[in-house]
Amino acid sequence: MALLRKLMINFGCMGKHIKAIAFCALLFPSLVVAQWSGPINLSPGATSAGLNESMGSCIGVNGDIVHVVYGDRFNSTHGAIFYTRSSNAGLTWSNPIAITDIHGNAWNAAIAVNGVNIHVVWRTIDTLDNHRSSHYKHSIDGGNTWGPDLQIDSPVADWPAVAVSGNHVYVANDIVTSANPYNTEIFFLQSSDNGNTWSPHQQITFADNRSEDEAIIARGADIFMSWNDKRTGQMQIFTKHSSDYGVTWGPDVVVVPPFGYGTMVWMDGANVDVVAAGAPSGKYQIRLAQSADNGTTWTTDVDLTKDPLNTYYYPDMVRDGKELHVTYVKSGVGAQYLHSKKGGTSWDAPYSFGNSNITPFVAYSGCVLHVILPDSGRINYFRNPTGNGGTHCAFPTAVNSVPGEIDDVNVYPNPSEDGSITISNHSENFSIENIQLFDINGKMIYSLDFKDKSFKETQIKLYQSGIFIIAFRSATNTFYKKVIVL
After folding, report:
1. Topology classification of domain 40-384
2. Residue 381, Cα to own-chain centre: how many angstroms?
3. Measured by CB atoms within 10 angstroms of the end CB, which terminus of the chain is less buried, N or C?
4. Contact (CB, 8 A) for 314 and 328
5. What is the pLDDT of residues 375-409, one digit of tens each?
């Protein structure tokens, strides 16, 4: 509320006049009410669409391009992996396409994105003998076309996870090493040539009982995994680190002690965060373990939900600088979101998206936050245009080189002597769906969506002198204009 009050004062929204109040409701609609959009169905026509069960994310981003994969179960023995994308930070979405055989039995997809390279993995279960195998598919042109299906590992116990760093692509999965007594171990394989060839799988855990449901993240030469492990007889969360592209691995480290289950891992600089459902006593809560020194030392895991009367599970998370974004499921309620802008030392109140009983996945592109979740056989998407305030929430180009200027969108007077600015759109071909205002340091001041795409004119009032950048987004393009307040 302090931020809201500050913004409203800066834009003259604390006055007593009805016109001022109405103007500020227009200027700050997502600050006056919740920033999150309503649900958008990404899976029209699906029979029974679903996402992965934690550990392997189904959403990936490259700038303003957002990629999503999901599985559609046609019946108990047949299913396929579908792909859809947005080219404008989630404002509009392509029609989903099947990227696996619709007569097959593919499910539990995961995705990793690096530029125009999109890497997708999934599990296939043979409909005749129940044989399970991991498969891989690659697009080198941002999802326009796709290479062949490639079986990369077999037999497997569960579904694969995938990560990418440059031309290095990594896949992890768990494999049954003993049927009686039952034992699974984590295996790892990699490609150093952008998915063209693959190494044999490499066993990286060696313990009794179950090591399973591994999550994986990579940045540069560093790779981190986290997984569920029952070697002590009680399920807990371990992590493991390689600093040389997976050639060698450090020790297994407990980060969420008994009982822990369902984990994701994220890296941002030297910060490594592991989130999981944990129940040291009572019902499962969402717990977070953190390292600020690239995994050398770890904090004691902390309880984020702090609600002993309810059960929480299936978390996901991303970090951008000090900004932490965590999604999870609250039993009987559905998907929820937690946000910290202080690196995890304090948290905002949770936000509820509603019905979902499997992992809601979260990602960011610049200032925009994206969440996908399964709901009653469809995949719903939620967008928050100002949800991320981290280091990536910045204007992408220097103010002396503002791209994409078009004459039919006018910003005047420019320069403005008193901070009063009119923005008008006279173009017949450019429908503005979103406006964002940035200061000279690249910090976004506000974001305004036009859902009916009918924006023609609006006025804003800036009470501070300086140089500002206005970003205009359509369904297919983004361009910028510079404005000066004297």
Report:
1. Neuraminidase (2.120.10)
2. 11
3. N
4. yes
5. 999 999 999 987 887 777 765 444 444 455 566 78
479 versus 292: the higher-pLDDT residue is: 292
Domain boundaries, the chain: 1-33, 40-384, 399-485
Tell me how far apart the alpha carbons of residues 27 and 149 are, in angstroms, rounded to a whole number.
48
Long-range pairs, 4-12, Cβ under 8 A, ≥24: 4/28, 4/31, 4/32, 7/31, 7/445, 7/446, 10/462, 10/463, 10/464, 11/446, 11/460, 11/461, 11/462, 11/463, 12/461, 12/463
Reduce the DSSP state of residue 113 to 3 states and report it. strand
Beta strands in 132-210 (DSSP E): 132-139, 150-153, 161-165, 168-179, 182-191, 202-203
Say how many C-beta atoms besides its own lie within 10 A of residue 203's C-beta. 12
- Most confident segment among 115-129, 317-331, 445-459: 317-331
271-278 sheet: strands from edge to edge: 260-268, 271-278, 285-291, 302-303
CATH architecture for segment(s) 399-485: Sandwich (2.60)
pLDDT, tens digit, 9 for 90 and up, residues 167-223: 999 999 999 999 899 999 999 999 999 999 999 999 999 999 999 999 999 999 999
Q: Would you give the end-to-end CA distance of the chain in angstroms?
A: 29
Taken in order 457, 459, 462, 466, the sign of the CA dihedral is positive
CA–CA dist 57, 160 (Å, integer): 10
For range 365-373, the mean pLDDT: 93
Q: Model's pTM, two decimal places?
A: 0.80
Give the Cβ contact number of residue 258 at 10 Å: 16
| DSSP 8-class letter at 408 | T
Cα angle: 412, vertex 413, 415; to 5 degrees: 120
**Percentage of the chain exceeding pLDDT 70:** 88
- Report the range of poorest mean pLDDT among 290-299, 344-353, 419-428: 419-428
